[in-house]
Design a protein that fits this description.
This protein is of the alpha+beta class. It is about 45% helix and about 15% strand. The protein has a two-stranded parallel ribbon.
């Protein structure tokens, strides 16, 4: 993945995505995602797979 230096919105999206697991573990929360396979690798993390139908 490559994000241009001036793409502030893209960088913020990437950081929010990467920070979901640590924050959810610290708060004993559930991560809701449409990519549950990635998050099931994190021990102790509760994950729910949701999809949006258009």
């Amino acid at each position: 993945m490559c994000i241009a230096a001036q793409d502030r919105a893209g960088l913020e999206r990437l950081l929010r995505y990467c920070a979901r697991s640590p924050f959810a573990l610290a708060e004993d929360s559930v991560v809701i995602t449409n990519n549950a396979r990635k998050f099931h690798r994190v021990p102790g993390l509760a994950v729910e797979a949701w999809t949006i139908e258009g």
